[in-house]
Design goal:
Blueprint (H helix, E strand, L loop, with lengths): L8 E8 L2 E10 L4 H12 L5 E12 L1 H16 L4 E4 L3 H10 L6 E3 L3
Parallel strand pairs: 2-3, 3-4, 4-5
Antiparallel strand pairs: 1-2
Helix pairs in contact: 1-2
Amino acid sequence: MNTNKNEKFNVTTETNEGSCTVFIEGELDLSVAPDFRLVMEPLIGVPDQDLIINMKNLKYIDSTGIGILLSILKARHGMNAQFLVQDVPARIQKLFDMTGIAKFFASRENS
């Protein structure tokens, strides 16, 4: 799936056996939050599939974007389903560290 409605934010998904990787690029902020939620809603509820957010090309995230990630984490945790972040850029990792949320996100290197 590709959401290219907004030039400053894009989401694509790639499903493989046992996992779904969501590639987000650009700026995840209040203005694109509804589009991101629309893409994520059907993916969150699949408990037997790992859900991975690849942030390699994410340039910016605001509190709304962080809130969405936390709500996904909470929903997946409640289902005992895997949720990972991948390829988090240093500037965004620093934000996650400063806000104290980094410890809640399981991460892995790009494979």
